[in-house]
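Can anyone check this?
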Amino acid sequence: MSTLADDLDDGLEYAYNPSDNEVDEGVVVSEPEEEKIDGKGKRKRDQGSSKEKLKEKKKIKMQYDIEHKLNFSKEQPDVIVEELAKKIRQHNKDLSSLELSELYFSKDDFVYTGDYPHKRNLPGFSKFLKTTFPRVFGKSRRNTSKYVLVLSQSAIRCCDIHRATRDLPGSSLKLIKKNKMKNDIELIKRAKSHLLSSTTGRLIRLLEEEECTLTPDSISAIVVDSSYLDSKKISYWDDYKNIEVIKDLLKKNKSLKVYLY
């Protein structure tokens, strides 16, 4: 019987070994070590890239939030009202739509100040007040028994505004927790100033005092120190208590208006 090599008859010798086509079951076929390392490295690079993207998104959002807070005072009243409505809904999730409607502001509660052309900082506070309230602080001022109330988020900021507005007629009355209550009551009664620089907390205490002559009706306008952000980038509007107090004042004095600086 002829062999396979003989049948080919091509002058070459062929040898068939069956073991050449068998796989040793004891040997595990695996990827080269270099590919494993490359695979791990790729996963690490992907994870690092995702973290960097997330970090960048947070940074962009933070910058947007800061810019939004700084420029909030320049918005139209309807935009201000809608923004505050969001905060009210977030803080009162259990209330019905009808109950929430009683807490919302009206666009008529706010006076647009976005057309004020100058920078809104501490040195410019007096100029803003003179421009916005010429009959109280400007050359055309008239005698009045009412106050323009500036609300700030901290006692330190109140002190800063008090110093920045010393050039106004009668300067301003600084109303903070550090003062003795009886001294503040006496100061309001005797002082000729028509500008109050106060924290929300101190204002609440004074309005609760029966001996104090300050009432919601004796306030002609509210100026919110809206453009100021503290070291943690917190604005006046970030404290919900401030929103509640302003809404309460507006309910008690229907002619009262809010201005944002």
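Reply from J.R.: I decoded it. The CA atoms of residues 57 and 253 lie 44 Å apart.
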